[in-house]
Design brief:
Layout (H helix, E strand, L loop, with lengths): L20 E2 L13 E4 L4 E3 L8 E6 L4 H17 L4 E7 L3 H11 L5 E5 L3 H6 L6 E5 L5 E5 L4 H9 L3
Parallel strand pairs: 4-5, 5-6
Antiparallel strand pairs: 1-8, 2-3, 2-6, 4-7, 7-8
């Protein structure tokens, strides 16, 4: 990706009516971009933790109503995948406390959640609003999908990552 789009703020977010569409095919990136973050519990995480592993990254914000309604789907998907594909949430544009409350309220404790309060991880993936997904294959190719998608589509995309 040659350029990072601006990140949506709570005031400008309107992702609920945005259909899920892949970004321009030129936005598919290889290799995995360099990033570092921490989990909501403060454990360090970098791209090296996911290199060579099929991974789904879900980009969300704690104030996003679409993300809130989508969260149980991601929890179900993570359980169904059973570790064959890593599922990771990247929360931005809120405080750590708001992120932790969202995780607790929506029951998504069963997969890793990264804190990205300033949307730096979002930026390296070119994500401009939420929800969004990065589907990362074992060979490091990435497809970014902007918008909400259902469990069946997530599982179909996950099956293609290995």
């Amino acid at each position: 990706m040659s350029e990072t789009a601006p990140v949506a703020s709570p005031a400008s977010a309107g992702a609920s009516d945005v259909p899920a569409v892949p970004l321009d095919p030129a936005a598919v990136v290889t290799p995995l971009p360099v990033f570092s973050s921490t989990t909501l519990e403060g454990e360090p995480v970098t791209q090296a933790d996911y290199e060579g592993k099929p991974t789904i990254i879900w980009f969300w914000a704690p104030w996003c109503s679409v993300c809130r309604s989508e969260a149980p789907t991601l929890s179900k998907v993570a359980s169904e995948l059973g570790g064959s594909v890593d599922v990771v949430g990247v929360a931005a544009l809120g405080s750590i406390d708001e992120m932790k409350t969202f995780v607790s309220d929506t029951g998504i404790e069963n997969f890793t959640q990264l804190a990205d309060p300033d949307a730096q991880v979002w930026g390296v993936f070119g994500v401009a609003s939420q929800p969004a997904f990065a589907f990362i294959s074992a060979d490091g190719s990435i497809e970014i999908v902007q918008g909400s998608i259902d469990a069946q589509e997530i599982l179909e995309r996950a099956a293609a990552l290995s």
